[in-house]
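Figure 2 data, in text form.
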Amino acid sequence: MNLNFETKPKVKICLIPVLEAYCRYVFETPPDQDVIVLNQRRDIGLFIPSHIQISELPVHRPFHPNQVTFILPVTKSNHYALKYRFFHVSTWAEEKIQNFIEAEFKQWVRLKFEYGYEKKLSQEEIIDAILRGLNVRNSAVNFDTIKKIDYRNRRLKERKRFEMLLNN
């Protein structure tokens, strides 16, 4: 299905490829679709529009190779502004959005690891499944990004166990 998104309100945000893939997964974006259509059923779909700024003139930002285009949800309270104004995301707002998406992604990955470890899967099997599920190339960078999340989560659990042992 090839939809025309040219007339839809959109905003571009820089994301690393694995976070873009996560957003595509969350919003069930078809692989052949260039844009991600936000909806308000997901926290990311509520968070991004809350950081949009409106201006009377277009705001041009420098090109960044990892820009992702998001189609904004139109509601009865924002339809006029989105239709007749220009909107953009400030650098600070973009950083907050990136951090929010990364935090959501890390939480999602932690849950996948917990479930995978319950099913007696190895770390490598879980990482491969996550990358395959996100439809992301299994590169060293993507593999290490997810492995680092598991490593930090395990270290946190070990520190809590150690503190528990010391307090008894």
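Caption note: The chain has one domain: 10-167.
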